[in-house]
Each structure stands twice: as structure tokens, then as C-alpha cells.
Amino acid sequence: MSGRPDSKIKALIVDDEELARLLIRELIKTHQDVEVVAECANGFEAVKAVAEHKPDLIFLDVQMPKLTGFDVLELIGSEIPVIFVTAYDQYAMRAFDVHAVDYLLKPVGRERFDAALERAKSRLGDKSRKAHPSFSATELASAARAPKQFLERIVIKDGTRVTLIPTAKLDYAEAQDDYVALASEGKKHLKQQTIAGLEACLDPQQFVRVHRSYLVNFERVVRIEPYGKDSRLAILRDGTRLAVSKTGYARLKALLEQRD
Amino acid sequence: MHPLLTPISRFGYYLLAWVPLAGILMYLFAVPGKLGWTDAAALTIPLCVLYSFICLSAWYSCKSNPLQRSTSQKTWLTHILAAAVVSLLWVGAARLLASSLASFQSFRGIDQRFALQIPILFGAGFLFYLLSVASHYVILTMEESSKAEARALETSILARDAELKALKAQVNPHFLFNSLNSISALTSLNPEKAREMCILLADFLRLTLGLGEKAVVPLSEELALLHSYLAIEQVRFGARLQLEEEIQEDSKTVEMPPLLLQPLLENAITHGIANLPEGGRVRLSSQGLDGRVSLTVENSFDPDATPTRKGGLGLRNVRQRLEARYGKEAGMRVSAEEGTFRVELTFPSHVAEVRN
Fold this sequence. Notes:
Chain A is of the alpha/beta class. Chain A folds into two domains: 9-143, Response regulator (Rossmann fold); 165-259, CATH 2.40.50.1020. Chain A is built from eight helices and 15 strands. The longest helix of chain A has 16 residues, at 110-125. The model of chain A has no long low-confidence stretch (mean pLDDT 88). Chain B is α+β, with helices and mostly antiparallel strands. Helix content of chain B is 63%, strand content 13%. Chain B contains eleven helices and seven strands. In chain B, the strands form two sheets. In chain B, strands 2-4-5-7-6 form a five-stranded mixed sheet, with helices on one face. In chain B, strands 1-3 form a two-stranded antiparallel ribbon. In chain B, strand 6 (331-337) and strand 7 form a beta hairpin. The longest helix of chain B has 51 residues, at 118-168. The radius of gyration of chain B is 37 Å and the shape is rod-shaped. The chains are: A alpha/beta, B alpha+beta. Chains A and B meet through helix 1 of A and helix 7 and helix 9 of B.
């Protein structure tokens, strides 16, 4: 603890089971330099608590209702060190190992807990190092999904408000610099992600990159119209018109043939 | 055993197949051979009866030279040679028959008339034998494929049995590790409660192992298992899990395949309650009517959450096991509306005999 001798490390505990939270709290007790600033029973609370308390360290359960631990990490960014806690999830464990993320297995034992906490402390002390050097939150989340499993819903944060969009309700996505605009049920939501990153998480049988800037839900396309030389327009169910490039058109056609 | 001799009806068909052959031979003797029709009949009928038995011997040479493995020249040569030998024997028998018939008044001179027809008889015998070889190969192939089919069926049944057994005895690792974590938390907070939960977990594991071994159990035993399971989940989820139970006293003796309700309740909790931040309700009820019993598991669920493959797998397994025991007598209804997921199993409350 070289960097911050006078103040304590602020820790946040996130787990949907009360007993699991109490256990972490108890294991922290022996570490005088760490104080628990808040406990959260779900991901929504966690996103709020992070904004409110600005914790230095988060103990984050993986399996929680609606928002998983991975969703929470994606929403809060990878600035704050996170120690994941999981009971049993072979894909998550492999993802943690691959990305050298600290994690604890339930039932959580004293020895592993102390070791993980010490590593987190040393990282905090050394400000030159990033909290999680080797990965982005979305990368970790997709590595933790079972093979051939695609994203089923997209999480979006607006301030501390979290919105979930089931991928079936996503009409199309449009690239806007470092963001994507997600169109769903007549509304548009901004998310800090590249369109290519989003495309990689979605089922290619359902979402087609019709243009450098557009990723469209195949189910929403009503027809394709020619538009000038070499380019076309995709008309969606709600009347939206999206530019379709030459390669995009080829992809649409290939998918259509596959489905027949 | 020769496949054409048993069952007896098959042998009958075999002999019937010889009738047209005998007809052909008789025609050959009578028309181009210029034997009288009576002569032809007197020769043909006993000869064909004899030859029909002789041709059965093709079975043994077919069996020792199965088609699929070695359809070599040697095989064909064997059959052709056998055909020649067998028809020569037949010709010999025919000469014997003709000369003994010649001693009768009405068949006088038949032996000389017949002697001119020997090439026809030899040719027919040769072809008939080869025909028999072909038929035997057809029978062999059919037997082989039906055996293979039976084997495949048996293998798939064994595989499903093994799968069911594994599923029956399966304890969800997620449940187990989370429960152990709860116990670990309780040891310092509330040692008495920790001990109680150890006992519940032990009961649950013991019952799971024990029930998985049996073909049927009374509902009361399945309920005992469910109670230990739900008591553990109650500790984990606390106020988030509201349990309701309405089991009629007389349905408790109903016999049913074990661990049929447990996966349904596990689904209700892991895919229902666990996905709801505020928790919800799980309700278990039974109803008996007209010799049938219906068991219902209902739970709150998040309609926005996409159904997982695992939950579907559990339901399919329950359906399969229900059908395996009761056939069309059993029913399973699954519905999801207004935030309530509901599975209803219906089956006869008394089954006279356990079917395999």
C-alpha cells in the first residue's frame, strides 16, 4: 500500500445472494485497510453504486438476474479492478484464465481471497498500470459465452440508467464514430462500441452487415430497391431506408439462399 | 436353422413358388419336347417335389459365401459347380423315375421318350438351382439388415437409458457450490443454521442418489426430496423465493417415476426466480380426478429473458420419461403467460403393471 497511506480502499460487493455478500464482507474484515462502501443485490444497483461511491475495487458475482457480472463490467468500463466470484461456469472460468482476470470460486476460501485481494492492492498502488491490462470488457464477455452462443440482449447505459434490448427487438445498428446507434421499437440508443465489435457478438444468421455503417436485422428487411449505379436500398418494415453496398447485397443474397 | 423351414407358413410359400416352375418344366416337356401331357405331368410333379428339397441346400453354400464380403469369382464358380452337380443328380433321379414308370402299362416307352429330353431337364435344373441361390441371397441380406436394425434400436435404447440414468442422478453443480458457499457464510453468522443446512444438503444428495435407483416411487418420497431441495434454495434466496404448496393427501400415495418434479422445480428456480431481482413465487399443487392425477409447477418468470436451451432440455427429458412409462396415457402441458410459467403433468394414478 504505497500510494494511499491515509485513506482506505473502498470496496463494493455485488451478489444477488445475501449470504454470499456477508461471506465476502467477513473475509474483508481482517484487512484493516479495506472498507466496504456498499453492497448490491443486482447489476442495476451495482452500476448506480459505482457512479455514486467510486469504489477502488469490486467483488462481482457472475450469475445474477437480468444483468450478469459481465454486463456490469461492460457498463462500468474496465477502469476499476474487479474480482469476479462464481460458483461454477466452465466458460467463464476459462475466459478468466485466458485474460488473467482474478476470480474466486464459491465456496470462497480465506487463502485465495487474501491472495486475490493482495494482487488487487498492488495494482491499485501502481497507478501506471491499468486495472485490467489485457482485455476489453466485451472481449471478456464474449470469451465467457459458450461456443456458438450469441448475444441475446444488448445492455446500454445512459448515465446510471440501464436499458436492455433483446436482440430480437433490434431493427438495425448504425455506426457513428466510436459509437453505434441501436434502433429498436422506434427509438435510438447510443452505445460506445464499434459496429464490427457488435457484429461479432450477434448471430450472423440474423444480423447482416449490409453496409460499412449498417448492420441490419434480416427479419426486418421487406425489400431491396435499386438506388443509383451499383448501390441499393434496403426498405425495413417500419419504412426505414438503409444504404446497401455491393458486398452487403451479396451477403443478403447468400443468407436468403441459405434459408430457402 | 434353415430360414425357409421355419415358420411352417414360410415353407408353404416356398413350395407354392415351385408351382410355376413345375408348370414351366411340364410345358417344356410337353410342347417342344413332344412328350404327352400325362407323361410330362407324371415326370414333372415328383421331380419338382424332390428338387424343391434339394435346392434348399443352396442355403448352406450361400451362408458360407456371404455376398458382401467376398463376391469373388470363386463364389460364383462354387455356385455354378454346385448347380451342375445338383442338376446331374436330378437327371439321374429322373432316369430312375422314368424307367420305373416304364414298367406300367400306361407309361410304356416313357424312358426312351424321356432320354431325348435330358438336356432340357439338365438346363432347367441348372437354372432352378441358380434361382434358388439368388433367392437365398435375398433372404440372407434381408435377415442381415433386420438384425442390423434391431441392433441399432437396441443401441439407441441403451444410450437413452444411460442418458436418463445420468440425468436422474445429476446434481446441478451450480446449486451444489452455491449451497456450500451459503453454508460457509453461515458457519460464523449462525452456526446452528449452518449445521441445519448441512443436514438438508446431505438429505437432498442421499435422496437424489436413492430415488434415481428406483423405477417408481410414491409421490410422498419425491416430495421429501423436493422439501430438502426447496429448503436449501430458501436459505440461498431468502425473501426472494416465496413457496406455496397444495398437495392433496390422497395423491401422496400415487406412484410415479422418481425425480420427475425435481427438474421442474429446479427450472422454476434457476430460470424463473433467479432471473428476477425482486424474486417471485413457486407453487406446487396436485389434483386427482377420475383415476388420474395432475401435478402442477408454476413460477414467476421474466418474460423478457430469452428461454435457455438447458431449461428446454430438462422439460424434454421429463416428457420422455413420462411417455416411456405411461405412453399416451400421460400428458404434459407447458404454458407461459403474464409472467407465470406453468408445467402440468397428468397421468393415471394407478398403473396395474410396470411396463419396460
